Amino acid sequence: MKILIAPDKFKGSIDSITLCKLIQQEIATLYPDAEVESYPMADGGDGYSSIIKHYFGTKDAQALTVDPLMRQIKASYQISADGSAAYIEMAAASGLALLADHERNPMKTSSYGTGLLILDAINRGAKEIYLGIGGSATNDGGIGMADALGYMFLDKNGDPLEPCGESLSSITEIVMPETDLLEDIHFTVSYDVNNPFFGLDGAAHVYAPQKGANAAQVDELDEGLKNLDAVFMKYFGRSIEVAPGAGAAGGMGGGCDVLLGARLIPGIDHLMESVSLDDKIAAADIIITGEGRLDEQSFQGKVIGKLVDHARTHGTKVYAICGETTMNIKDLNAMGVDRVVTLKEFAGSSAESMANPDKFLCLAVKKIL
Hints:
The chain contains 15 helices and 15 strands. With 369 residues, the protein is α/β, with parallel strands linked by helices.
């Protein structure tokens, strides 16, 4: 029996590298003769940097930056041994996890801190910038990031706007950077969701509520992204309304596309290609994957959805271990997941399963196998 272990992290609970080790240990106890390989995964969100370091042997770089509310912090990113490539996790400077629940407000939060990390990497000599954009606290269309790199966004009176979500509707003019800082810098952006830039399925309507927006603010943010797209059309001659990945991270994907000339790719695709995971899926009998919360969004460009697509091609079974799920087994079977086990069913509550995942993982592995 050949088993491939390839989970995402359980957000707020356990990272995917540790998860792989624990699952593999339990399989070794149950089936000593099984051939087992582990490939911890990430989709561009929280944990992106640690996975990059795991596979590519990068080194830590630390920089002064600001959090989503513009408070000074230190944040780390990864840089290649020769210094030519930098791998930046947006969540490190602009992530939702950096804010207390009562501080969440995508009208006020900004991606400016991520721009400062990019600036630091360029100043260190990096020519290739890889940016993972999941887990953000922002809905600013990337204008905060761009502001840190020399862009300015003006209102109808020609006055500079604060680079945050509430300014989007007021932008009428874009002032390009005065320096050639971004020339010859190649950007690749790894996104974790495939929503459009604006609209009912867009960045604001789908994700701004979990970032602290009320219904009126969601509408305002959506109109703001629509306005920003119109301004992009005016200055750059193209709309990104339905460009793949444009709505990721509160429109950060679309902003990077236009303002940085970035290549946008699903984060999991980049990782799978780098480790030739499709070949390993083809050779396996079973994939054990998982994430903290398994729901419909798991199948929209995230780790589980991508693995299911590849497994279907090769006839490989997909077993999912997750913290909890909102889906029934019939629907999961229809999506391509053959078996599912949650830690919550052993722990009795989401809080307990998140606090002590290692305590319940061995039980979950036994049950699913």
